[in-house]
Amino acid sequence: MTQQQEERKEALADSLRDLLKHEAIEKVTVDQICQGAKVHRSTFYRYFTDKYDLMYYSFERLMIARIDENNVIDSIIEIIVNDKELFRNVSINNNNGTLFWMMVKMLSCQLLKADEEGRLHSIGLVQRAIESSTNKELTAKMISGACLTLMFEWIDSNYQMSPKELSEFVKNMKHL
What we know:
Blueprint: H1 3-20, H2 30-37, H3 41-47, H4 51-62, H5 72-82, H6 84-92, H7 98-116, H8 124-132, H9 136-156, H10 163-172
Helix pairs in contact: 1-2, 1-4, 4-7, 5-10, 7-9, 8-9
């Protein structure tokens, strides 16, 4: 992919993230996304099948690519804290669960990939659960769903716990 094509994809992702700070994904249109990215509608469809495909790409670039493998919990919390407006709006306006389930899929895929590559050592509880499971895919989805539920609850409570308190809470769960 050329540099210009990458820039267009990123512009579309940025436009969607900007729109999601104020609107639910169901209310965002492809035309709005294209207008924000300053590209033609046909350019959108050259790279993405629909706005949900773009949303998957956008959140994968926003979150998954920026997670520090050596400090998974704190890096996820930091990503959310750095874009509170986006995550707050998405959690409030996510009535049908589209984003939640998309994020479960993304995170569980990343957990399975990390397991295959032997990179789960920094989160031992997750490593033990996945490695000892008879159904690794289902276990990864369960863990992802639990983590995301916790994050969405934290966001919905208007960040009642400090990032440090949340991090400590999650890290202390390894003793269960």
